[in-house]
């Protein structure tokens, strides 16, 4: 990084922490910066980077143009806009909804002890598909991946989570991108900023922590003009609250029943 910065660069992409580190060391000069872009702006604030971002803003020229990007916008993003932008303008996409145009969405009420049985049955009957499966923790991703590999549902299985080394994550990311028929078990590390081509199904074994997380997860399929499907597992105790949150966001979703396995 130091070598590249000394040679001179036109575009710098980094996390707030790494950018601030270079600014503190004097290895990055942003005095002539023309554009500041914050991608996944709502999530960056959720991760506690607000103070770091404010410190970075103090190093930037006031004549810059600042842009915030996210599929979902929260009050905290608007707060940041008031702090860092002059006369901010909100620009929405052309679609009438946050959801992809060609996305079909389903949910299934599944008792906790049956979740893995239902998931395995789903994979076994969709072996000619490319499937992204979201789970809530690294350990769960590891466990299900190891067990299902031994059970052999009939398609290639992969796992992606935050406890893997970066080089390992990059290889898995590339392998899944190249695959035609495969299932990738993942935490929310794969919910944003990753473009997997031709994903047929997004399956959420664990309900998302929020409506916004749901939107970002299902956004991994039906990208651009492609078609895709999403399936959400909900516990009986989660059904009312989750459906209410999705209904408030104008997310159309249909219930289906699990087949007996």
How is this fold's topology laid out?
Elements: H1 2-7, H2 16-25, E1 35-39, H3 41-46, H4 50-57, E2 65-69, H5 75-84, E3 103-109, H6 115-124, E4 130-134, H7 138-151, E5 156-160, H8 166-178, E6 182-186, E7 201-204, H9 211-218, E8 228-234, H10 239-248, E9 254-255
Parallel strand pairs: 1-2, 3-8, 3-9, 4-6, 4-7, 5-6, 7-8
Features:
single chain; 261 residues; alpha/beta; 7-stranded parallel β-sheet; two-stranded parallel ribbon; 10 helices; 17% strand; globular
Give a written overview of the molecule:
- With 261 residues, the protein is of the alpha/beta class.
- 36% of the residues lie in helices and 17% in strands.
- The protein has ten helices and nine strands.
- The protein has helices at residues 2-7, 16-25, 41-46, 50-57, 75-84, 115-124, 138-151, 166-178, 211-218, 239-248; strands at 35-39, 65-69, 103-109, 130-134, 156-160, 182-186, 201-204, 228-234, 254-255.
- The strands form two sheets. A seven-stranded parallel sheet has the order 5-6-4-7-8-3-9, sandwiched between helices.
- Strand 5, helix 8 and strand 6 (182-186) form a beta-alpha-beta unit.
- The longest helix is centred in the middle third of the chain and has 14 residues, at 138-151.
- The N and C termini lie far apart (53 Å).
């Amino acid at each position: 990084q130091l070598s590249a910065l000394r040679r001179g660069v036109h575009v710098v992409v980094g996390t707030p922490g790494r950018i601030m580190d270079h600014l503190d060391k004097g290895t990055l000069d942003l005095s002539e910066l023309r554009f500041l872009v914050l991608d996944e702006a709502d999530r960056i604030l959720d991760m506690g980077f607000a103070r770091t971002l404010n410190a970075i803003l103090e190093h930037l020229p006031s004549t810059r143009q600042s842009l915030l990007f996210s599929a979902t916008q929260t009050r905290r993003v608007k707060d940041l806009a008031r702090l860092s932008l002059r006369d901010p303008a909100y620009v929405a996409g052309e679609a009438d909804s946050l959801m992809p145009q060609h996305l079909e969405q389903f949910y299934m009420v599944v008792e906790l002890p049956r979740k893995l049985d239902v998931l395995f049955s789903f994979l076994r009957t969709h072996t000619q598909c490319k499937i992204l499966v979201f789970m809530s923790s690294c350990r769960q991703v590891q466990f299900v991946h190891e067990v299902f590999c031994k059970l052999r549902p009939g398609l290639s299985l992969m796992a992606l989570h935050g406890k893997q080394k970066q080089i390992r994550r990059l290889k898995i990311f590339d392998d899944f991108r190249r695959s035609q028929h495969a299932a990738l078990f993942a935490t929310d590390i794969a919910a944003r900023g990753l473009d997997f081509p031709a994903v047929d199904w997004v399956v959420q074994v664990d309900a998302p922590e929020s409506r916004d997380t749901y939107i970002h997860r299902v956004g991994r399929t039906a990208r651009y003009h492609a078609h895709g499907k999403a399936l959400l597992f909900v516990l009986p105790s989660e059904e009312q609250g989750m459906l209410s949150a999705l209904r408030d966001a104008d997310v159309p979703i249909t219930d289906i029943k699990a087949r007996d396995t």
